[in-house]
């Protein structure tokens, strides 16, 4: 460092060299009454003594107790009740008015002190607390019942308030207020008494109340009232107090101070105060009240000329001592009779002894003077900044402590900086207008260059407008509503995360578990509503439905919360996203557990609005939240953060450090950096023209420093306690959220959500190379305990057993009632609904894993007729009039655009049915119809070809084919046609001829059998064929067709091209049958279009008359209808699959369809005797191959014969050789049976005379009968051998023309 720089640098201050903790500890141990003088030392001291950190340190520092006396005085002059505190000095004591409190403190209210807070109760107007450390007011929850003329005191940390209910003297009640949970209990009954103002004390764990006659005692442990005769014996009242569990009061009539010891249960007079009481009574005392103050007894009394006119209030402090025998003695400790505490006509309403811890350090005075001298010579430039916060609240206290710690840490590590931030606190009083007023005051009086805060988004909305008007940057560390971004103010910076930044994490959780419906539960203000637009969009991206929203008022009572919770219980959705303030969330979940919404099956997801501020939730509230999931702001661990947390726990153990405190710390650091970089040039406001008539806001002027500070502030980047600090689009941008699960009284981390990888178990977990389609939630999150200590993932919805029944619409049909039938019982006048669809639905409901209450409601008019078609019925679900539709409702694309269908429980389609006619005409020539003409001619030709070929091959060697010419010609025809019945008399000897005849026999066999079968079918059965074969034929011919009334088929036919005039509706099967029988000539139809289930029922009645010829339209089938997004769709669809795969589906089919189809056999099991296909004649094509084979054999035989014949004759005299017998053939060597030799057929006498040998050979006349006897022998192997035993060939047995008919062997 250069010499010039050393000269410019100010000398180090002794107080600066001290650690910051030591300075804070010193200031915290000073009496509060010395703080005004300490604030005059420097601006830094003034900032410290006004910061909440000092008061937090005072409460946590060890040491003796500083007692502060607070007195409520009622001024008769202006009829106002105000709060004063006793300020003491070495020379005098006085009552000092506490400023900034509500001017209308109830004169007839009741007061109680707990810790450092005074509780004020006025059931008619309002109840609130006064924080004696900061003198700020916080409103309490409303009383369950309004009470008037109340009295209150504290027993065991709980405040008991007794008063009149409904301003009725006979109606009294008592309420209990828990100061820890800030909740009311009661009302409780009170015995008959007259309530007197202030006549109540708490002693020995019991509460004593005095009316005009008796003293009543309430024991909280036993919740019992009783009377105490000993206490009632003295008329103590509003002037009484309790010191060390002993009751004291001034007895005006006897001018004595009396005491009651509850252990000894007796009254006594306090000794040693006779002179004091005599002097007080001698100065025209108007009234006297006893007060407990630091273990001593203080007598406050009013001095005046008349009885009820007080000129001044004085006091005397008495120390008490219990001597031997239990006698109580008093001694005057201090008496201010020579000067008054306060002058005026007052009366004391209540006096309260408050305690503050303090230790005096002599070392402080040296520090005081060193800091005073430093303040006079400090050259550093101080820049005023504002902090608008709800002073007196725990969260505000934590935030302001972090602001002060941030400045201390920042400047201690950067002593070379030339600027110093001076934080000026403005109390927003937990009110929107109060925040705006505080900001205006800071800008007007302090000319702050920037504003930190405010706490809530509603308050920030006004401050943003003020900052925009005055060019003062507003940096909020807790206003998270996305609505603030829509203001598009350049002077608003958000040093926190916007609420909508967490919706992707919430969306990932819901998508991971597959929940289809979610109900947002949020607070009814800007904070709660701000997240809804982005949350709704995110859920729509994954097709998650929001059936309704649950909105909770900020000041909702327990009864109002219970009503909303009951409404949530009575709805089926069980997944809730809770976005509200922590105190309200605590009450909300306590009530939810009481009502039963924390049992298994429920899912609760908290936003970081709750999880980031758990210190505001009571222990009971945390326990009620067991099993709840939460999205929490992730704060990255660092050494600096660990050190800061350690310092915090040591210095401020009573307050828990929250993430908002860390953001306040970082925001203050960013503001200090930005101001140092912006410099200190032109730290002024431009004033408005005084000659112009402008508003107070315009009169503030414009900050000349604001634009420069805004620029540097927007560019600030550093590593803060909460992570990387950098403004992107005027706000911090998160990339990681922590997912927590509440268990017992704590939370545990189960995973993280990152912008890059989504849900992961560990923050450093690497994503998989390829995401498995079979991954489960356990791959992304750790083990989760769900509400009710459940391990299984809740479905996300259920039908509440105590909720309303499902209203299920049912179509009213006229025909085809086997599917759905609606009737009315004439006796009970109740609706009876039956049918296949109803039975199937009930079977599906039985398969669901939970109970579903429902009722069927027919879709009909009052007169019993259908209220519309099926489109109208489905539309009722979209309108919300029905919760579902059960019936024969077809799944169509246009319907699925506004409702959801389940899986089809029965397949469907649209079929075309037409009449059947017998197309075969029978007559005298019907026997020709089985074969085609071509086949008849071919068969006839082959008969001649076969006969001729066999004759050619056989006639030279076979006697059967020899003879005269005409005989041989007739033999050819005879042999050919006799093969038709397999009865030719002529034998065939040659191999080729035999092959040919065998092949021809096979063809003849096939032909005759086919002919027989075809002719039998033609003559004995009907050949039924449809009159129309397709829908296109109907369109071409312009035929009239029928369709089901109220069906979608009408629209389909119009789209196809049918004219509406050609479309005829029908309702029942009988109407359809009549229309088809009449035909178009008689006003009927040519065909009818029905869906497949109806078609099955129709053909079950008329299967022999009509046929389905085409299925022109394909549809998915019948399904059950539910609203879009209904979670029932998935469960019912699964149940449909279970029923369809079970025997129950088969039973239902048989019960409703088979009884109609019994007359029409199933084509799969029993083929239809009247086939649909048209019969045709047998043609040549069916036998072409066989004919070719036979023809080939003919060619081979003829060719072989011609070849051999030419080789033998050499081509000479072929005709003559052809007529001769072939003596050289091998067939002549075969021995033939005589009966097989051919006799000469009868012929003319000329031929017989010319050829006597031939005539003898071919004669049919027998000359004689001969015989031969043969012996038979069976040899080895079973072979039979024969041997001629006797042969009579040389002589005949008998001569004559005989033929043997039968030979018999007779045994005699």
Automatic annotation (TrEMBL):
Domain F-box: residue ranges: 12-58
The protein's name: F-box domain-containing protein
Protein's organism: Brassica rapa subsp. trilocularis
Compartment(s) of residence: Membrane
Transmembrane segments: 932-953, 965-983, 995-1019, 1185-1206
PROSITE patterns linked: FBOX (PS50181)
InterPro entries reported in the protein's UniProt record: ANF_lig-bd_rcpt (IPR001828), F-box-like_dom_sf (IPR036047), F-box_dom (IPR001810), GABAb_receptor_plant_PBP1 (IPR044440), Glu/Gly-bd (IPR019594), Ionotropic_Glu_rcpt (IPR015683), Iontro_rcpt_C (IPR001320), Kelch-typ_b-propeller (IPR015915)
Entry function: Glutamate-gated receptor that probably acts as a non-selective cation channel. May be involved in light-signal transduction and calcium homeostasis via the regulation of calcium influx into cells.
Keyword Transport listed: yes
Stored SUPFAM superfamilies: F-box domain (SSF81383), Kelch motif (SSF117281), Periplasmic binding protein-like I (SSF53822), Periplasmic binding protein-like II (SSF53850)
Keyword presence, Kinase: no
Key words of the record: Glycoprotein, Ion channel, Ion transport, Ligand-gated ion channel, Membrane, Receptor, Transmembrane, Transmembrane helix, Transport
